[in-house]
Amino acid sequence: MNRRTVRHGGIRALLLGVLLLLACGGSRFATPYYGAGGPPFISPKGHSLWRAASAVGARTPSYRVILIGDAGATRPEEATLSDLGLWAEDLIERTAVVFLGDNLYPGGLGDGDERGEGILLQQLRATRARKIFVPGNHDWGNVLPSAETLARQERFIDAFRESSATFQPKGGCPGPAVETLIEPGAGLSRGLHVMSLDLDWWLLDPEDRPKCDGIASERDFLRAVAKELRTRADDHVIVAAHHPIRTGGPHGGYGRGFWASRGVWIANGLGITVQDLDGDVYRRMVRRLIPALGKEPPLVFAAGHDHGLQVIEGRDTAGTLVVSGAGSARNVTTVTAIAGTLFAHAHPGFVVLDFYGDTADFGDASAPDRVVLRVVEAGRSRPVFEMELPQR
Question: Are the CB atoms for 325 and 100 separated by under 8 Å?
Answer without folding.
Answer: yes
